[in-house]
Each structure stands twice: as C-alpha cells, then as structure tokens.
Write a structure and sequence with these properties.
By secondary structure, the protein is an alpha/beta fold. It has one domain: Phosphoenolpyruvate-binding domains (TIM Barrel, Alpha-Beta Barrel). It is 38% helix and 13% strand. The structure holds 3-methyl-2-oxobutanoic acid (KIV). The site of 3-methyl-2-oxobutanoic acid has 11 residues, from strand 6.
Length: 277
C-alpha cells in the first residue's frame, strides 16, 4: 500500500523527512527550506516550525566555536553538535557537514567520519567539491550514507578561492555544471549551490534530476538554505547581499541583557514575586 506523502510544509509531517521525500518534492515542483542548526533549542524549534532539513554546518566555526572561518573546525567539535541536533528533532532530516580535512584524504577517511555522524543520529552528510571528490561520494553512497554535494563558493576552500567571491562566472559555469552532473551520477541526493550567478543556478537546477539548494544563487533553485544566525539577525552587520533577515535577534538580546543588568544594579530584580517564602 502506498504511504500518504507528508507535506514538507508547516511541521505537519508525522515522521522524519527522507531523501526520497526531497526527490518527490522536486518532481512535484515543491520548494523547501533548509536552515543550519547547532544546538538543542534551535533544532527543536525549527523542527516544530516545519523546516524539513536541518544542516549542522561547519559554519559552526564562525557561529559557535569562535573561529574566523570554517577551516579550523574538527570532527571532534562537530560530533557533539550533530548529536544534540539529532536528539532534539523528530521530523527534520539532519544533514551533518564533513569539516575541512575530514574527507579529502581518501574515500575511506570520508566513510570513517561519515559513519561517526550517522552513529550519533544524522541521516545524511554534506561534503564540498566536484569531480575530485567523486570516489568519496561513490563509496559513501554504496555504503549507505546519503550525500549532499556543495559547489560554488565552498568556504572550506576560501584560501584557494582567494576570498568570499561569486563563483561560476563565464566558462567556470560550464565546469560547475559538469561537476554537478558528475556528483548526481555518483549518487548525491541533493546539491548546495553557494554564491553563483542566478542564471547558472537555474540552468543547473533544470539539468539535474536531484534537488538543488541555493544560497546566494537566485530563485531558480529547488530549495534554499540560510545560516540561522544570519536569517534571524543575530550576526552583526548587514551581511552578504543575498541575505534576508527575518528578525532582529541581535537588538532583542542586547536590549534584554541591558535591561536585566540595569534591574540588578537598581535592585528591581529579583523582586518579591521571584523569591521563595
Ligand atoms: O556550513 C554551512 O552553514 C553551509 C551552508 C551555508 C550551506 O555549508
């Protein structure tokens, strides 16, 4: 008997979203949203809000761990974050980001580290790169690990890309499309396209059978992803051009912390109602 498909919207799925659901969404022309999450409270909240895919991104480096880039992030730092997000969700598909240096060495290295993530509760892993990581993708998929690819501006390669700049302009766009097709052929179930021209992302999305997930890649992708602290306005500054902030948590938290400190200083907190007789 065929199972009623869950809607990817509104937190109404009664079971965890699977990679097959994401493929069916692409086939049906349904767009979906992915957010990063690194901890229990946001994971549970985004799960309840109906976000179908949560990425425990190596952007934890510059959002949680105090690094300037994602390059120093290690497996040992990522594993507790992945475990916390997986434990705190019931419906979102949890994708764990393989950090820099945890998969480039060999397919076997990628498998060892991906297995660590799946054993603490992730349902899939993400890794960056095109044709040079195909052996890794093939071994992972053959071994039962769903893989999300990542092309365009891949922050782990910031030192070879020479900064955070738009990728895939001109002939580089053709190479990116070839990489995308090769990743699909190797068995990737979805592909992040980061900071590439919108027309290229649309072309790749049309050519690929699997869903594309855009970030700074225009409206032509099948899904979108944002770093949650950017989306909710916790990170400072205006952020990159592609960013839309859906809240101003930075102001909310600053005001709350200042009001609390003022209350303590002025003797307004704690008051009688906060005490025990
Ligand atoms: O680590 C991350 O947050 C990411 C997304 C920006 C795609 O890789």
């Amino acid at each position: 008997m065929s199972e009623q498909l869950p809607s990817l919207y509104g937190g109404v799925t009664s079971r965890r979203v699977t990679v097959n659901d994401l493929q069916r969404a692409k086939d049906a022309g349904e767009r979906w949203a992915m957010l990063t999450s690194y901890d229990m409270l946001t994971a549970a909240l985004f799960d309840d809000a109906g976000i179908p895919v949560l990425l425990v991104g190596d952007s934890a480096g510059n959002n949680v761990l105090g690094h300037e880039t994602t390059v120093p992030v290690t497996m040992d730092e990522m594993v507790p974050l992945v475990r916390a997000v997986a434990r705190s969700t019931k419906r979102s598909l949890v994708v764990a980001d393989l950090p820099f240096g945890s998969y480039q060495g060999s397919p076997e290295q990628a498998l060892t580290n991906a297995v660590r993530f799946l054993q603490v509760g992730a349902q899939a892993v993400k890794l960056a790169g095109g044709r040079r990581v195909l052996p890794q993708v093939e071994l992972l998929v053959e071994s039962g690990v769903p893989v999300m690819g990542h092309l365009g501006l891949t922050p782990q390669s910031v030192n070879t890309l020479g900064g955070y700049r738009v990728q895939g302009r001109g002939e580089a766009g053709d190479r990116l499309l070839e990489d995308a097709l090769a990743l699909q052929e190797a068995g990737a179930f979805a592909l992040v396209l980061e900071v590439v021209p919108g027309d290229l992302a649309e072309r790749v999305s049309k050519e690929l059978r699997i869903p594309t997930v855009g970030i700074g890649a225009g409206a032509g992708c099948d899904a979108q992803v944002l770093v949650w602290t950017d989306m909710a306005g916790l990170t400072p500054g205006p952020g990159p051009k592609f960013l839309k902030r859906y809240a101003d948590l930075r102001s909310v938290l600053t005001e709350a912390a200042t009001a609390y400190a003022d209350d303590v200083r002025e003797g307004r907190y704690p008051s009688q109602e906060h005490g025990y007789s």
